[in-house]
Amino acid sequence: MISSFMKKYFIKQKMMRIVILSLIPVILSSIYFFGWRSLVLLFWVTLFGLGTEWIYEKIQGKKVSEAVFVTCILYALTLPPSTPIWIAVVGIIFGVFFGKEVFGGFGKNLFNPALVARAFVYVTFPEPLTIHWSKAATGFPGGFATYITETIDVVSQATPMLIFRETGQMISLSKLFIGNVSGSLGETSAILIILAGIYLLLKKVAAWQTMAGVLIGFTSLSGMLYLLGNPQIPNPIFGILSGGFLFGTVFMATDPVSSPRTKEGKFIYGFLVGIVTVIIRGYALFAGGMMFAILIGNIFAPIIDEGVNYIKKIRKEGEKEVTA
């Protein structure tokens, strides 16, 4: 019955189902670290995100894409645990409509719709998105025994990147690796995100060129600035494990629609995202930077592909002339 319903109203997208499967451990960890409110937030975001796309596609006489579920999950996992539900809902409606549907629907959008939604609420509602955080639960049963964990109201207990920016102190790498630190719902546990990334690579759903480009671009620039003694730049390992960097690298930057199509273009695009992340984190007003870096990368994705294809064309013409 469920299968026939999905077939009737949704575009079948096996790739998206694999991404959702890889996100299940991350969703469960968000409940463990921050309580059941993460699941409530995810429910309302998915309901309104799905509804927004259904209304638009219904008018166009088309089916809803299964990709909308991925968009909703990714967006919800980038939100702080205490984000007001109405703000989260406004964000996903904006992201699905203006980040995807106005371009013509799935496969035609220039920007990652989940990041469009996140950027919109980040800029429009800065206080709940940048000030109010929740403590990460530890031990058993952790957040599974509460609706939402205790709220944090001091900088010394905020997210790793905010603490570094305000005090210069760095949280232990072991905590960042496990994930029992304050932050957005799905961005804290490095180990789970890394495992999800490996799974996506094995399933050939995510491009390794993009991930490698992001890591190399970020590590090279942040490492150079760190060695030069720039106090605004932490060591590269800390930077990689904090601030949603890994989450963005694995799930957002690799979006097949808003990133380049060519293999060379994917690497260049990833390298650009990594470099821009370092610049924004170190010199802009934002403690994170990954979100805006990917959106900037989305702008250049088509141009990068055009450049790569043009160079390939010139090389082929040159080879023909030599053989002639």
Automatic annotation (TrEMBL):
Q: Which InterPro entries match?
A: NqrB/RnfD (IPR004338), RnfD_bac (IPR011303)
User: A Gene Ontology biological process annotation?
Assistant: electron transport chain
| Protein name as catalogued | Na+-transporting NADH:ubiquinone oxidoreductase subunit B
Q: Does the keyword Hydrolase apply?
A: no
Q: Which GO terms describe its cellular component?
A: plasma membrane
Q: Which domain of life does the protein's organism represent?
A: Bacteria
Residues annotated as transmembrane: 15-33, 68-98, 177-202, 211-229, 235-254, 266-284
For this UniProt record, the keywords arranged alphabetically read as follows: Flavoprotein, FMN, Membrane, Phosphoprotein, Translocase, Transmembrane, Transmembrane helix, Transport, Ubiquinone
Specify the species: Tepidimicrobium xylanilyticum
The answer to whether UniProt assigns keyword Cell inner membrane to this entry is no
